[in-house]
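Hi, here's the filled form for the chain we discussed.

Project: internal
Contact: R.S.
Residues: 169
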Amino acid sequence: MLCDNCKKRNANFHYTKVINGKMEELHLCETCAFENQEMDLNNPFSIHKLFAGLFENKQDKQEENHKDITCSNCGLTFSKFQKTGKLGCMKCYDDFAEYLKPIINGIHGHNHHRGKSPNRSSPNIKLQKEIEELMIKLDDAVKKEEFEKAAIIRDEIKEVKAKLHTCEE
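And the returned structure, exactly as it came back:
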């Protein structure tokens, strides 16, 4: 594929931009890509810019719904956090929780850290984690009124709990 800009060299940078649901694609060679300042290729990705961008869309609505909240520990204002995407301290998570939870839930699909355990960890930890995952599936099945599926999951939980009980002895 040739570069969309110079039409001479092979395009090896493929840039997709979506704004208000409208997708725009740009295929550029290396030379044209670095000349195109819109893509900002020289700046590395920043998670802080990501968070700031996520809050941009909701910022106007939230400003109407609350006064500018300030962290009781470090003094960071919520509006400053919205601009930078950086929290000031651990207490910010608690003080801004009402506004952070929907964003974190939107990114991860949940608000609880599930984590990973090493392969060589004890079987008890793996079984406990399996029980937790099955309990989540059970709750989901009950909420969706899939009672046959819920019964199967309930039985699986009983089996895993029995395995856990025998490992503890």
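Let me know if anything looks off before we file it.
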